[in-house]
Amino acid sequence: MDIKTAEFTLSAPRVSMCPNDTKPEYAFIGRSNVGKSSLINMLSRNKKLAKTSSTPGKTLLINHFLINREWYLVDLPGYGYAKRSKTEVAKLDQMIRGYILEREQLVNVFVLVDIRLEPQKIDLEFINWLGLSSIPFAIIFTKADKLSEGKVKASVDAYVRKMLETWEEMPPYFVTSSEKARGRDEVLDYIDQINKS
Ligand code: GTP
Ligand code: MG
């Protein structure tokens, strides 16, 4: 599958203000600065589609991008940014979890994790919450260009081991780099398979 058109639809502060449409949606979640918006731009081959920044906390709303006029990529705010007030953290948490639990069109969540870090408690907790909430998800390792191939493999192996401490099987996962467009075909094929099922 390839992406022929990618159009920004709207930014919503809560799930009730998301597009009035029933097309399938694929959402991207993870810690602030992990590379969610960059990945959406890489997949759509449009560096200006989603706003990115080297400073964490760039995306603050639920952003819908219509792909091939058939399905949506959804960019969410990140979690776990230390320099936020308690009220702000609670507001964003409510926005993210409300969208994930209530949006019926949401068919899959991609949880992004930075491949350079050992498994982080905040991500593992979020993944467990998705599992408990019966939300289908896959894991995307980001920024693979920042490690050698040997370290990429070691990092993925460590993550799989950690996941298997609590999960019976490893969910689908992808190694990506938005800089190098690595993992693009694999992620798009995965989406395509779900769209056709
Ligand atoms: P928030 O919206 O703040 O939650 O962040 P985000 O997860 O959307 O991250 P964003 O895409 O804005 O990227 C954060 C920083 O990481 C930017 O400086 C990107 O250029 C950089 N970055 C993202 N993906 C990659 C990648 O694959 N490789 C490298 N080297 N840098 C990346
Ligand atoms: Mg972002």
From TrEMBL:
<comment type="similarity">
    <text>Belongs to the TRAFAC class TrmE-Era-EngA-EngB-Septin-like GTPase superfamily. EngB GTPase family.</text>
</comment>
<dbReference type="InterPro" id="IPR027417">
    <property type="entry name" value="P-loop_NTPase"/>
</dbReference>
<dbReference type="InterPro" id="IPR006073">
    <property type="entry name" value="GTP-bd"/>
</dbReference>
<keyword id="KW-0460">Magnesium</keyword>
<dbReference type="GO" id="GO:0000917">
    <property type="term" value="P:division septum assembly"/>
</dbReference>
<dbReference type="GO" id="GO:0005525">
    <property type="term" value="F:GTP binding"/>
</dbReference>
<keyword id="KW-0717">Septation</keyword>
<keyword id="KW-0131">Cell cycle</keyword>
<dbReference type="Pfam" id="PF01926">
    <property type="entry name" value="MMR_HSR1"/>
</dbReference>
<comment type="function">
    <text>Necessary for normal cell division and for the maintenance of normal septation.</text>
</comment>
<dbReference type="InterPro" id="IPR030393">
    <property type="entry name" value="G_ENGB_dom"/>
</dbReference>
<protein>
    <recommendedName>
        <fullName>Probable GTP-binding protein EngB</fullName>
    </recommendedName>
</protein>
<keyword id="KW-0342">GTP-binding</keyword>
<keyword id="KW-0479">Metal-binding</keyword>
<dbReference type="GO" id="GO:0046872">
    <property type="term" value="F:metal ion binding"/>
</dbReference>
<feature type="domain" description="EngB-type G">
    <location>
        <begin position="22"/>
        <end position="197"/>
    </location>
</feature>
<keyword id="KW-0132">Cell division</keyword>
<dbReference type="InterPro" id="IPR019987">
    <property type="entry name" value="GTP-bd_ribosome_bio_YsxC"/>
</dbReference>
<keyword id="KW-0547">Nucleotide-binding</keyword>
